[in-house]
Amino acid sequence: MITNTELEYKGDLYPTKIVSFEHEVDSIYFHTDNSVILKVTVLRDSLIRFRFTTKGYFSKDFSYAIDKSHLHGYNFLKVSELENYYQIITSKVKCRIQKIDMRLSIYDLEDNIILEDELGFHWEESYEYGGNIVKMSKSSKDGECFYGLGDKATQMNLKGKRLENFATDQYAFQKDQEPLYKVVPFYIGLQNKQSYGIFFDNTFRTYFDFCHERRNVTSFWAEGGEMNYYFIYGPKMQDVVTTYSDLTGKPELPPLWALGYHQCKWSYYPESNLKEIASKFRELKIPCDALYLDIDYMEGFRCFTWNKEHFPDPKRMVAELAEDGFKTVVIIDPGIKIDKEYSVYKEALENDYFCKRADGPYMKGKVWPGECNFPDYTNPAVREWWAGLFKELISDIGVKGVWNDMNEPAVMEVPNKTFPMDVRHDYDGNPCSHRKAHNIYGTQMARATYHGVKRFAYPKRPFVITRSAYAGAQRYTSSWTGDNVATWEHLWIANIQVQRMSISGMGFTGSDIGGFAEQPSGELYARWIQLGVFHPFCRTHSSGDHGDQEPWAFDEEVIDITRKFVNLRYQLLPYLYTMFWQYIEEGIPMLKPLVYYDQDDIQTHYRNDEFVFGNQILVCPILEPNAVGRRMYIPRGQWYNYWTNEEIKGGKEIWVDTKFDQIPIFVKAGAIIPKYPVQQYVGELEFDELILDVYYKDGKEKSVVYEDAQDGYDYKKGRYSFLSFQATGKEKELIIQLHKEGKYDTNYTKYRINLIGLPFKVKMIEIDNVEVSFDKNTLDIENYIIIDKGFTAFHITGE
């Protein structure tokens, strides 16, 4: 019998006084007299890693989230010992670590506090599993706001919330329900006009409390592993998000068709049904680039097989769809049916590629094929084998994209809906239980899928989409927000989720337009498509259990609205492609919540609905039935109503009238918005002019346009076109200066310049200092002029 209560339950433990420190290049080690070590690593002047151990030494340093290809470096580092604390100074921040208890605080160079420990690091020994429950608590200032954390179905500002990160198959989830499919343990704090970020790189089940339990305390903790977090200093939210994107990585450019409209359902079969869907899109002239095949295309739900009754010749079918512009995307799940006649199962069994329970037997669980075993994607050999399985689908049959589902991993008919926690994983040579590997299982599956699709799609670019993901998954895959519901509440949730994912490093995300579960009304579907075309990933997807959800499943008015907004997306493809280029090059999120766009305006701190699409288009969806308008907040600056071209001054909330076939859209004054003509699919048309919508501004505004061959890898060899436009408006002048970078020459030869909001009648036009003639009546009436694309300066003078 144990009578020592201290041994029975120690409760929370804390670092004691620091007894020594050492400085090695970019890292400083602090040792306490109870064997706690804090390693502080300065990766950049504004990016500092804090890693704690309680056992007197560090385990192997390994992370799936960090992009190891990205090099870091600081400009200045000074470490000094003072009477009560140690001080680390970079060119951006000061970090002070108290000698008595290892609590730390971070200041800007003017000694304004950015972030400080409350209790700081502490831990609780886990007698059930071994190791520690690691905890961190920080003081929070009055008025502090919190954003990010990836896929959360709650308010944009997380103040007052407690949230959980454990990848979960959450069918038909509700507002504020926790946890969901994705795990992004990264948040942004904003107080006193200063932003900072915290990335808690721990793959165990984690929790975040943003002043929920205690009013001025923010905390985060994990059920195992290390207290290992990165501090990122802004002071602008843009700087925080960009640095986080550099840290965890960015994708390569998708093929342009992947940014088109996609149509999906559980399930389109047989072949005649899929062909009928394709034909109807072309008949109704609603653009569409991709059609999806859900699990029913397989033979008995066995991955990498085809049901020959429903799809007797998949290669021919895929080729015929491609002739009409449709790319075929197929689903692949992680559950491999236990069937000794099934080649994929036999290969995995022979090579010992399946996950095992602690006592040795393979992990067995029921999913769509029945009883299944599951590959251990944390094993590099398994990932390599899995990648090779895509040869037939991609190289031989011609499938263009792969959709990974059920990879939380989801298991049916068990209480926790996933693997038991005793399942073992290789974890790239760092063996562990499912407690540690659960949250990254889906990412490693998507990683293996990406490498397979990329290998066999080459020289074209791969397209992969995943349901479950951990921070860093954006390097391999796009994502969607899971099994939502056809309700107005879920339309609100979708808007929030995709904005939040965008500032959490996973920009290539969308929702199931119209809702996966249940059936939307025509009005709800129309309002959802009006939002969905402004999401980076744009796909209608639904469960076949609840009726049809193609645009023509509704009345003519909804068909017309769908066509109108999908047409608008295809017109804006060069703008969207440019957004993506800036995302992968500079870490700039494609969707910007208003607080990201203007953090100094306190009115933006609690806005949910409005967002900036790219850099210059403001979008506000209609989220209620029977709406004839809505109140919305216009950010500071000058904006034009997209539908009426009326100019308004921002920095205020206004009422905006809207019809059923419109939502509030505004364009920033001075913007130059590139457009293509409407196509039924990417690459359908050869066109000779790029449309440039020029919105007049009294002042200067820069706009950019990125273009390349729309697929392939020549862009990495400099074969791209990057146009920088500088628009300068004066009382009776408009000057547009153009600078081009890159070796790619676009097929079109002209620009059609649409002049919007010009406050004067045109008297003279000069191109590269040479006066040119123009049709004054046409310009006055239609407000456009066509010029050759080779200009460097375009000058309009008014009367």
TrEMBL record:
Report domain Glycoside hydrolase family 31 N-terminal positions.
38-209
Region forming the signal peptide: none
Q: Which GO terms describe its molecular function?
A: carbohydrate binding; hydrolase activity, hydrolyzing O-glycosyl compounds
Q: Name one GO biological process term.
A: carbohydrate metabolic process
Where the record annotates domain DUF5110, the positions are 689-757
Q: Where in the numbering of this chain does the Glycoside hydrolase family 31 TIM barrel domain appear?
A: 251-579
Hydrolase found in the keyword field:
yes
Q: Which InterPro entries match?
A: DUF5110, Gal_mutarotase_sf_dom, GH, Glyco_hydro_31_AS, Glyco_hydro_31_C, Glyco_hydro_31_N_dom, Glyco_hydro_31_TIM, Glyco_hydro_b
Q: Which domain of life is it from?
A: Bacteria
UniProt cross-references to Pfam families, sorted A to Z: DUF5110, Gal_mutarotas_2, Glyco_hydro_31_2nd, Glyco_hydro_31_3rd
Among its keywords, does the record have Zinc?
Answer: no
> Sorted alphabetically, which keywords does the UniProt record give?
Glycosidase, Hydrolase
* Domain Glycosyl hydrolase family 31 C-terminal: residue ranges: 587-673
Question: Record's family?
Answer: Belongs to the glycosyl hydrolase 31 family.
Q: What is this protein called?
A: Alpha-glucosidase
